[in-house]
Amino acid sequence: MTVLKTSLRNFFAHKGRMALSAVAVLLSVAFVCGTLVFTDTMNTTFDKLFAVTASDVTVSPKSAGADDDGAGTGRPAALPAATVEKVAAVDGVRKAQGAVSSMNVTVVNSENKNVGSSTGAPTIAGNWTDSDLKSMEIGSGRAPRGPTEVMVDADTADKHGLALGDELRTIAATGDIRARIVGIVTWKVTNPGAAVVFFDTATAQRTLLGATGRFTQVSVTAADGVSDARLKKDVAQALGGAYKVQTAKENADENRQDVGAFMDVIKYAMLGFAGIAFLVGIFLIINTFSMLVAQRTREIGLMRAIGSSRRQVNRSVLAEALLLGIIGSVLGVGAGVGIAVGLMKLMSLAGMNLSTGDLTVKATTPVVGMVLGVVVTVLAAYLPARRAGKVSPMAALRDAGTPADGRAGWVRALIGLVLTGAGGAALFAAAGADKASDGALMLGAGVVLSLIGFVVIGPLLAGGVVRVISAVLLRAFGPVGRMAERNALRNPRRTGATGAALMIGLALVACLSVVGSSMVASATSELDKSVGADYIVMAQQQRIVPQAEKAIERTPGLAHVTRYKVVDATLTSPDGRTDDTGVTAADPTYAEDLRRTTTQGTLSAAYGKDAMSVGSDYAEKYGVKVGDTLSVAFKGGGTAKLKVAAITDDETSIDQGARYLSIETLRRYVPADRIPQNMIMFAKAEDGQEAAAYTALKKALADYPQYQVRDQTDYKEELKNQVGQLLNMVYGLLALAIIVAVLGVVNTLALSVVERTREIGLMRAIGLSRRQLRRMIRMESVVIALFGALLGLGLGMGWGATAQKLLALEGLNVLDIPWPTIIGVFIGSAFVGLFAALVPAFRAGRMNVLNAIATE
């Protein structure tokens, strides 16, 4: 009880000094709990949707993929209407309904604007059936009855201002259909963001499947008393294994698994950034308790003198850390729920609907937050507590601070040098790796070892780096600048730990900036070197429908148009080994549009009759050379014997590993209705017609807003924007760690001011003005921030340069250091230091001189 009372007294006596550490714990725990609540809520939303929309038993073609038949034709895999009748005749079936559904559609309004989701959620078109009443109800109007009528979901109608009577155009692989809205359906459960339109059955079949009398699945309702498992068995037996038969649970689980993989990526990425914030928070807590222990040295000496053991002193400090961890974690769990709600509102603004009614806080979430926050806090405080327990009574009563352990300092420096050297060696080995997989392991080891090494060696580096920074920035400020330098150098361990907190976040920023900039520079260089086409036409998530393809081909001012199709196929090498990564079918003009380097043969020859090319990696792996014959089994078609006419060099980032053949060769072995749509199309303008052809091509595709026409300048800018958006998102997540690091600087300065109260009083007494005092503290903060920034940016650029060497194995050969970003971050760190010093400097300036001098 004595230890607990002492800990409580000390904690509340220094509650102001503990506040920033508690905020660091709060932020880190809140981010973890917010991530868990947000992802669990999304999973709950999808689970409810899948559970409600799944029929008791569902029958679908075995080849059905997520969006079509897997061949890229744009038409979903289908089964004959006779299958519905056969299923309806099975004992135990109360009702069997044929359903039509496709996600290979684009829906535009009367202003030719896409009304689909902007968040990546699908646009779904289908027929309206009784099975849909389980998840939706007609809120206004009625169900469609003919080819000129359509029904839309209420969420889509609200987002795009649609009403009864408005016209929608649905663009599908079989053609366009215009219809007026006659009904609006309302979801009974939360719709995460999909746009849904319904037609009558015959129209849906013609529009989405290209023929009537076919369905994409059969929705089966069980008779009373018949279990789903029993019904599945009977239906499967009646169909003879020709189709995929699933119970409601199996269907929901399959859909949940597809979504779950995406959700796991989001979840673990966000938790990774939360872990970085925790790591940075550790430095803040270590610094806080180290300084509090140093300030209470005499108190600890008295406790030891009157009989307190080392263990009791140790426990006293750890008890304070435990209390700090509990308070910070409890507040963090509550804040985490708030963060989750905020993220849900943010996603709603972006187009993904998430209802707070589905807010899911699992029992494990607060437990994880509490355990993580408390354990991290106590572990961070362990070293200061251990150091406090080692203080002897006489040494503590004699000295004003915790005596330094010179031997421990040398040991620390030696360990830091060893770890840094090992990290540097691992990074050097990664840069020279022949295989990306081997290099990635070495890169990971190098990043971890060099980071730990820099953290450990930080106090040793502080002396030299701070002196250099001070010589450049502080000497111009005379005695005040020199005092700020000495203050930063007074306790290298403290300066090193404070700078290390900022170093971690900025190292990641620098690394990702170098990688992102190098990716853009490499791709730009490759485009300039390899791409001969003037224009590129593509969509983000869809292939190019035939009517858009014809519009492109009819565009005036074009010398040629190249079609580019990705085809599922299995290759068998001369020695009998197989590879199922597919082939690329293109027009012969693609050899002009993409200038691929060949190691054997010529690329133009690969577009001849029954000929093809392979990549150099494939050729090396399977021992293939020009003149060999490969067996190519096309999905949905026949098997061809194709002669290898060229081997392309795989040291490129464009079409790496592609195996080319002509579209004419593809047509000889694959039926017309199984040939995939174009993934991309390329075009070359006639000489002198570049500007006119560009304008004409955009005009030709004006009716198809899902496709973008880009010249090489547009494409480069788009690539730069995409990488920039990704980096901005990552920087936003790293901002949490940087905020915690700033709190560390604030806390260190605040405690340092308290620690130097008497010294500040004496300086004020001999003539130091309040303005000079505040300037001194601000300069000290700037130096510490720049110290952390210099180490972090240097370390991050080293990591980024090594990562680029690995990416060079994948064709990204250009190393580009984004100096404007690096310099901007470095200068920004100075402002971070100034901001962090505002409150400590203000408090120091308000000190009463006499009271400060009288302080022990």
TrEMBL record:
InterPro entries for the chain: ABC3_permease_C (IPR003838), MacB_PCD (IPR025857), Macrolide_Exporter_MacB (IPR050250)
UniProt xrefs under Pfam families: FtsX, MacB_PCD
Compartments reported by the entry: Cell membrane
Gene Ontology CC annotations of this record: plasma membrane
GO MF terms, alphabetically ordered: transmembrane transporter activity
Statement: the UniProt record of this protein carries the keyword Transmembrane helix: yes
Record's bilayer topology term: Multi-pass membrane protein
Residue span, ABC3 transporter permease C-terminal domain: 273-393, 733-848
Main location: membrane
Spans through the membrane: 268-294, 317-343, 363-385, 413-433, 445-474, 495-515, 729-754, 781-801, 821-842
Domain MacB-like periplasmic core: 19-237, 498-693
Keywords from the named record: Cell membrane, Membrane, Transmembrane, Transmembrane helix
Protein family: Belongs to the ABC-4 integral membrane protein family.
Name recorded for this polypeptide: ABC transporter integral membrane protein
